[in-house]
Amino acid sequence: MAHLSEAAVVKINEICDRYIGEKTPLIMILSDIQKEYGYIPLEVQEIVSQRTGISVAEIYGVVTFYSLFHLNPRGRNIIRVCQGTACHVRGGKLILQTLEKELGIKAGHTTDDLRFTLETVACIGACGLAPVMQINDDTHGRLTPDKVAAILQRYE
Length: 156
What we know:
This protein has 7 helices and 4 strands; from the N terminus they run H-H-H-H-E-H-H-E-E-E-H. It has 156 residues and is of the alpha+beta class. Strand 3 (133-135) and strand 4 form a beta hairpin.
């Protein structure tokens, strides 16, 4: 989305126009844009600013404050690796290192082919299965480094 098409600009303007008259429309606008495009780059923030009169600085502040908004494209598969206490004690850091090596990226990044985004989380809520990771809505527990590659192969 580095260079927006005319159709994309029209769509972003339509999204902004849905919330004319709302007292605090920014989060709703950004949420709808992210649902449409998957992320909210600076170029999109500038269009929202022009359309709404909200400064780019304020929009950027909201996008970077809330973890549900993203500045960069995300992968088709989101990997969340638990780094909570139970997972940490049972080797969660080693699972994260294995994933980083397998994917060729660090936590917080996306593979060049947009297949995977790798994230860390404080807790998945499956402590009895530690160490744990989620890929999309699938939870994988009792992980060992030698299981990671086979699990990744299941996701296109």
